[in-house]
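re: the backbone from monday

yeah here it is again, tokenized this time
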């Protein structure tokens, strides 16, 4: 029935009432409905920051097709919103209010309603509203659903009390977890997947009158209250109202114990009663409930005293609080005992379900406020890329992690969580942290001591936010720069990767783990075991990826020499955890074919744990077991039996834990294997000191993003710059020169920091605190003028600097062939062409991998591989203006064409644009000499036992060779030149100089 008919019927009924009855009805009537959407064209199809309706989806096919359609049966007006959909992943539409205007106040109403044209699909449609935050795309999401189990128009009414906080996804990680309703930004509809259908919707409006139970809420200051036996727990109970107005009516809170493992009268004094907040009580008023525990002489597990709160006149807390009497007197709690004994004592006390929980890692977004931490005895939580608290500050991180750790105190043995993050180039999820160059740039520095210092800065900033575990460093040996993760590698030479593993000591401290409990150290992770950098182009079967997560096909000798070598170094350095790769390994001749690494017991159990002697624990990659063949039970048993000790199952942690228990009971996984995994995990928790200090130690928080930390990142940025060409000594620049700066990456901090910065994929623009390359040049005292697209006049300048390259990406999203290539954008090419035609020019390439510039190279005077230098653009300016010399060397081969890929040091056929190890310098006085000098250097190198002396001798020889070669980089020069750098890294100094002599003769 059209809504106009409904209104006429209501008016007719009112006319039949007496005047007194009408007066009483009006007094008690709900407020008039408030329109949200009429779909008569008043709200356009548009997006943020303007008000509008827009679609979204998991891929290009998932967004629905929308239209405003005239229909004679429209419940209101003449038009409805109609659409068709066929969704494989996820998709839907959103109405966002304008971000340039204040949010709307919905707090006077009972709920939201709309008309829906049912198709009787039997599927559920999710409906969510957007509360608080900066705008509709940075707000809290509250969700509910309705079933499409009817045909024709039906009005769907949803009281606001039906909405629950969405825990599987929050765009900003949550604001306050309270549906305030005073700053609303619109709604979104998620249509059902797996069915091809249509829909129509009309007349979205707010209805009804809000009652106090919606506007007032009762909360407690914590969910868990640990207390030492004999102590008193104080539970603070607070009443608050929307808009902070006083209570209209009284609110009562009755409290009493509700089960638990503690015994009233034996473990605590009986407690019950009622708290009353009278009408007129101010919002924020607090009263307390005290629970006194009793002391006895026996050693005990932790015992719980849940308090049931029965609230009248306000919304009750989402969950009841519980007091926990701390475990005490048990051997595993004795910090004076050896860790091995503490572990053994704890493991023997645990149930199978508790052990399975320790082997389970969930995402913070998956556990909501954290009640499941105790319910499922979870051993670990993580923040995926971009999964952050709001606000994204160090204090908020510490508070969030402490709240999760508090949940773990409600378990029998109070085993602390170990929280992990991907801090792959600094604490990159945290706004304002010091962001280092990505590993490819660290490899370019050839400076192991600096690599260690970058790790130490990262560890300090990560631990200061309460995070004790870092999923870094990546020890992949990148062999094909079409790989979207190539910038996560230190380079293509395993010897270079091994030399940079000093970063492990920066993160963890001493190899024996004695420093892990310190407030500036974290547990490190060697990843991705093994061969992730060797996957063949075109071998990936993950979505649209072309190379990431594909197949690495190698002989056993190649596997040992290239991909396994860095892991033995990591084990020797005491690495605490190892993460297997998504990729498959195909060892030629073993008869197994490609096998996913998470299933390779021969490599994890056999090579890593047994042969290499790794005594830490193995953590899976994100949902990696889902890629194994077979059903879910076989995924679990195969991976655990292969040697994976903890499973990263972000949102399926319940299924994993229960399935693992079932697989053990079915005899598919032995209890001995479970005990081994749990013992390894607990050992690292004890080493980290988490049992004694589970909560964040924020004493180093003031150092996050500090001048001293940024100085390390600035040095790393400077040393990572590789000078590939420098005709006529264009670089370094002089402060007296008028410099014309152009290019897409000159003044873009997001492009400069790359992927894995604030969010998983990273983003262009300013998303954290730092200095762009342009600003760095200005800070250096340069006389610069900036025109991003080089549209400004180019006359009157001494030299041009064009900063070009890539925009951010991460993992397979960045694979070449997956919407990416190795060429500059047309805009960047145009900027290079214009500036370099008008003046002497230097081109800086800000990228995660080499870019193909051979066609423009003759027209460019100087070329710098800037990689992804991080937040400290001042470091790039330091070498541009000569404050520091260029000292960086190529960590990967720079190809002439994509057809050459893969191309690597040691290849039989090797004819690159620039060879591995190439890197000019700008010292005040370059070394001179010829064949005789090189012979003398070779002789001296053969006699030295000092690594520093050996490196200095080879470096001098390299600079002599580069000076002769100039830009005449031929295949005859490149091969021995690259081989020399590999020999240097393996300590064969005389052999390295000898190879450089060969390159010199070929030049």
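seq for it, each position gets an aa:
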């Amino acid at each position: 029935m059209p809504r106009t008919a409904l209104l006429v019927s209501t008016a007719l009924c009112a006319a039949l009432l007496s005047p007194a009855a009408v007066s009483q009805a009006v007094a008690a009537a709900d407020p008039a409905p408030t329109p949200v959407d009429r779909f008569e064209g008043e709200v356009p199809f548009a997006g943020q920051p303007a008000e509008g309706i827009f679609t979204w989806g998991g891929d290009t096919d998932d967004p629905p097709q929308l239209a405003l359609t005239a229909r004679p049966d429209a419940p209101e007006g003449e038009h409805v919103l109609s659409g068709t959909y066929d969704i494989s992943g996820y998709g839907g539409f959103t109405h966002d209010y304008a971000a340039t205007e204040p949010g709307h106040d919905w707090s006077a109403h009972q709920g939201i309603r709309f008309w829906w044209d049912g198709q009787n699909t039997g599927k559920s449609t999710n409906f969510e509203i957007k509360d608080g935050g900066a705008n509709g795309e940075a707000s809290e999401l509250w969700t509910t659903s309705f079933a499409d189990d009817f045909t024709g128009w039906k009005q769907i009414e949803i009281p606001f009390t039906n909405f629950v906080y969405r825990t599987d996804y929050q765009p900003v990680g949550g604001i306050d977890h309270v549906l305030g309703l005073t700053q609303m930004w619109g709604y979104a509809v998620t249509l059902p997947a797996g069915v091809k259908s249509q829909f129509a919707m009309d007349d979205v409006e707010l209805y009804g009158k809000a009652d106090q139970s919606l506007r007032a809420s009762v909360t407690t200051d914590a969910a868990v209250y640990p207390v030492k036996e004999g102590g008193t727990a104080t539970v603070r109970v607070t009443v608050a109202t929307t808009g902070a107005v006083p209570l209209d009516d009284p609110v009562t809170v009755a409290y009493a114990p509700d089960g638990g493992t503690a015994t009233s009268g034996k473990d605590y004094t009986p407690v019950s009663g009622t708290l009353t907040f009278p009408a007129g009580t101010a919002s924020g008023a607090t009263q307390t409930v005290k629970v006194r525990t009793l002391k006895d002489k026996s050693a005990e597990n932790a015992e719980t005293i849940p308090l049931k709160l029965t609230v009248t006149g306000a919304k009750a807390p989402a969950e009841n609080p519980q007091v926990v009497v701390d475990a005490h007197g048990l051997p595993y709690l004795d910090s004076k005992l050896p860790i091995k004994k503490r572990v053994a004592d704890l493991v023997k006390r645990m149930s199978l379900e508790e052990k399975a929980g320790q082997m389970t890692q969930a995402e913070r977004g998956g556990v909501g406020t954290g009640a499941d931490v105790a319910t499922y005895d979870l051993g670990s939580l993580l923040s995926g890329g971009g999964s952050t608290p709001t606000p994204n500050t160090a204090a908020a991180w510490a508070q969030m992690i402490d709240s999760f750790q508090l949940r773990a105190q409600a378990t029998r043995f109070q085993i602390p969580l170990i929280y992990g993050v991907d801090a792959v180039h600094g604490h990159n999820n945290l706004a304002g942290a010091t962001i280092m160059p990505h590993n490819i740039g660290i490899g370019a520095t050839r400076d192991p001591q600096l690599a260690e210092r970058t790790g130490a800065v990262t560890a300090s900033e990560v631990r200061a936010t309460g995070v004790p575990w870092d999923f870094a460093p990546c020890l992949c040996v990148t062999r094909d720069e079409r790989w979207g993760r190539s910038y996560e590698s230190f380079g293509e030479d395993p010897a270079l990767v091994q030399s940079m593993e000093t970063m492990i000591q920066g993160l963890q401290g001493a190899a024996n783990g004695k420093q892990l409990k310190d407030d500036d150290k974290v547990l490190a992770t060697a990843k991705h075991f093994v061969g992730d950098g060797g996957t063949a182009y075109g071998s990936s079967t993950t979505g649209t990826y072309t190379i990431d997560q594909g197949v690495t096909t190698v002989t056993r000798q190649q596997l040992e020499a290239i991909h396994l070598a860095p892991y033995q170094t990591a084990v020797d350095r005491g690495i605490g955890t190892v993460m297997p790769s998504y990729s498959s390994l195909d060892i030629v001749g073993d008869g197994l074919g490609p096998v996913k690494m998470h299933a390779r017991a021969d490599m994890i159990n056999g090579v890593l744990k047994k042969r290499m002697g790794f005594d830490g624990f193995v953590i899976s990659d994100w949902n990696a077991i889902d890629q194994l063949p077979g059903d879910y039970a076989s995924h679990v048993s195969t991976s655990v039996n292969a040697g994976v000790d903890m499973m990263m199952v972000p949102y399926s942690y319940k299924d994993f834990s229960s399935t693992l228990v079932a697989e053990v009971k079915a005899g598919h996984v032995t209890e001995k294997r479970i005990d081994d995994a749990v013992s390894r995990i607990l050992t690292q928790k004890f080493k980290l000191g988490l049992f004694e200090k589970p909560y964040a130690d924020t004493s180093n928080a003031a150092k996050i993003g500090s001048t001293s930390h940024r100085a390390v990142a600035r040095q790393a940025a400077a040393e990572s710059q590789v000078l590939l060409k420098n005709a006529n000594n264009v670089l370094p620049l002089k402060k007296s020169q008028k410099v014309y700066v152009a290019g897409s990456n000159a003044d873009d901090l997001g492009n400069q920091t790359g992927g894995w910065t604030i969010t998983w994929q990273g983003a262009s623009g300013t998303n954290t605190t730092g200095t762009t390359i342009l600003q760095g040049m200005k800070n250096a005292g340069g006389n610069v003028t900036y025109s991003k697209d080089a549209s400004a006049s180019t006359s009157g300048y001494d030299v041009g600097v064009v900063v070009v390259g890539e925009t951010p990406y991460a993992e397979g999203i960045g694979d070449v062939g997956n919407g990416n290539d190795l060429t500059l954008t047309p805009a960047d090419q145009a900027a290079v062409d214009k500036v370099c035609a008008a003046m002497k020019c230097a081109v800086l390439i800000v990228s995660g991998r080499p870019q193909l510039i051979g066609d423009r190279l003759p027209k460019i005077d100087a070329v710098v591989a800037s990689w992804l230098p991080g937040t400290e653009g001042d470091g790039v300016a330091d070498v541009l203006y000569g404050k520091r010399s260029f000292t960086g060397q190529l960590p990967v081969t720079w190809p002439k064409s994509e057809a050459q890929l893969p191309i690597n040091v040691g290849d039989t056929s090797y004819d690159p644009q620039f060879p591995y190890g190439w890197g000019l310098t700008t010292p005040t006085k370059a070394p001179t000499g010829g064949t005789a000098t090189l012979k003398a250097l070779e002789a001296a190198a053969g006699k030295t036992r000092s690594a520093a002396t050996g490196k200095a001798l080879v470096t001098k020889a390299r600079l002599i060779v580069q000076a002769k070669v100039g830009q005449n980089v031929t295949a005859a020069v490149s091969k021995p030149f690259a081989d020399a750098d590999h020999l240097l890294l393996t300590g064969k100094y005389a052999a390295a100089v000898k190879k450089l002599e060969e390159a010199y003769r070929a030049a």
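Confidence is low (pLDDT under 50) at residues 1-27. DSSP finds 25 helices and 37 strands in the chain.
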